[in-house]
Amino acid sequence: MHSSPPSPPRRPASLGPALALLSAVAFGGSGTAAKPLIEAGLSPVHVVWLRVTGAAVVLLPLAYRHRAAVRQRPGLLLGFGLLAVAGVQACYFAAISRIPVGVALLIEYLGPPLLLGYVRFVQRRPVSRGAVIGAGVAVTGLACVVEVWNGLGFDAVGVLFALGAAFCQVGYFVLADAGRRGERPIDPIAVSAYGLLVGAVVLTAVTRPWNADWSLLGGSVTMNGHQLPALLPAAWMVLVATVLAYLTGVVAVQHLSPPVAGVVANLEAVVATVLAWVLLGEHLGTPQLLGGFLVLAGAFAAQTSRPPADRAATPVPATPAERAVERAPSAAPVPTAATATGTADERAVG
Hints:
Layout: H1 15-28, H2 30-40, H3 44-58, H4 60-65, H5 68-72, H6 74-96, H7 101-108, H8 111-122, H9 129-145, H10 156-178, H11 188-207, E1 220-223, E2 226-229, H12 231-255, H13 258-264, H14 267-280, H15 286-303, H16 320-327, H17 337-341, H18 344-348
Antiparallel strand pairs: 1-2
Helix pairs in contact: 1-12, 1-14, 2-12, 3-6, 3-11, 3-12, 6-10, 6-11, 7-9, 7-10, 8-10, 8-13, 9-13, 9-15, 10-12, 10-13, 11-12, 12-13, 13-15, 14-15
């Protein structure tokens, strides 16, 4: 008599969207925390180095706990650090040194539509119509949020750097999703921890932090007319806008499909704009409010869309228990966790 293996606990349907939203909110606060430090005298690239390196140090205990991941998937961890951490940051700041911030943001957040194309035509996985419509609506709204028409201009090198940031953003979602696939899936915490460590090493070589005046962190900075210790926005930028943002973002991708998580991530720009309005006193115009509504509508359309009918295009490798069942001599079929509840990928592709 054969007994079926225990089914894994079902994840709440709302967990993926909630984590993706939390990640977008956390990422969105990075600019608001960074601006007072930049105005106090730190260069933007040194603020980025502080952000990434500080987060890597905080996650060192978790990296040590998941050290086996280095032997299991070294290429994935290296790629995540190079693309999702160092690549996005370096390309974005190189872009805004040549083109307006709004234009750079809009081009960078072409990442979700590019991701849809990668999933559909490179990975040959189905993409829902809701995800495509949601991405288009969200990008249109994003153009309003950043008021792209106020900085229209063409600088070929700047545009190429911004496109580089967009492609690196695609790498963030693809590699985060790849961590749960294959015969050696790794914990998303390991992906975040080692990705930030790799990113910190790369950014150290690029930004040369020893040239910065770090004594500024012992003083105070000004935020919307109020004085506060410089360590306060620095700590927020490291702990919330980086550690929390990456941890929740990578886990969200593994609960949702990469295309859906990518569209929800567009909310980061809306959160950044609202926080700048509330905490920095920056004005929000009617186009920005309308754009924020469109981004929210696009994200909602994407994450509530039904998976396409063709789910068989993305088979998930059988677990050791399932392969053992297939080799069993019994003529009676044995139900498995995958046949009982459907694979996580089948429930998530959207």
